[in-house]
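Tokenised fold entry reproduced for everyone:
>
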Amino acid sequence: MNAQDNPLPLAGVRVVEFTHMVMGPTCGMILADLGAEVIKIEPPGGDKTRKLPGLGIGFFRSFNRNKKSVVLDITTDEGRATATELIAECDVVLENFRPGLMQKLGLDHETLSKTNPRLIYVTHKGFLPGPYENRLALDEVVQMMGGLSYMTGPVGRPLRAGTSVNDIMGGMFGAIGVLAALRERDATGKGQEIQSALFENCVFLSSQHMQQYLMTGEPPPPMPSRVSAWSVYDVFTLADNEQLFIGAVSDKQFVTLCKVLERPDLLEHPGFGDNASRVAVRPQLLAMLGEILVNHRVDELSPRLEAAGIPYAPIMRPEQLVEDPHLKQSGGLVEMTTDDGGVTDVVLLPLLMGGRRPGVRSPLPKAGEHNEEILSRLPSRRPA
């Protein structure tokens, strides 16, 4: 079955993307994976994200698949005119530049919607309109402001999450906004401006803890200092200093865990009769389990926990995930041809739609690879 027989849900939607780094590109990649034609506008020399070192080296390959690349200098009159003409033939514009830049260039929603009222325009920002809206934001900035770093680290040591959670989720919310706006446009014939913001995204991640405070009147402690609702819900160090998370979250699971560990004597302990009793003496219980588990190997204990239905998890590192058997066999880690002609594995969207995974349809584009294909379609460049 080919793509024409079974088109992706956003086939026929055209998107022009003025983005860099992670947040905006994530939004564009989601739309591209779902079938939209996404045209990435890059400056002369290509998006600087292509050449980031260190922890940024994987940004471009991770968030720019299934797109087409057009190089335009939108700081020139000619580049802006070409961009405006291209936008007129598109359904959606994405941007994540600093506040005010697109307005200065005449490529903002207010200007463009005057001649294209059906245009859907997504601005990825640090903050939604309000006292903070003109501040520059980074994922780390909003993690500190939005409660996430406080809840993640131990008391007095706020700790950012180890990946760009807000940038990625901000792009996701931008894409959700596009899907809703396309649906609304079907009914009204009108487009709209959508704003997705890092700070508000992070506060949404912290909302359950805000509600916890509003309901109890007690400030929620950071996760490392939390009072667990379950007696066995922790990371343990096993043989060879390997670590394993084990969670026995019911009385039945605790009984099963004791059987797996071949320690029925724990069930006879006077303080371990039910979960509430075990939580009251949790440090003692965890110390006892630690002494038992240090004699077990992760590779030997894991299949026994799985067979018994006990939640568990090895502490995996990113370099181990590239060989994860579930990711490979479930189709979530697939090959993509890179812009330099090589091949790499990429992680697909965590979606199964009608039994299929939205996947890689084209190689990662070279900077400007699609200039001729895209720009030759414009009215001003068509043969008379």
Remarks:
- Residues 227-315 form a domain with the formyl-coa transferase, domain 3 fold (CATH 3.30.1540.10).
- Residues 105 and 273 are 69 Å apart (CA to CA).
- The mean pLDDT is 95.
- The chain has two domains: 14-206+324-381, 227-315.
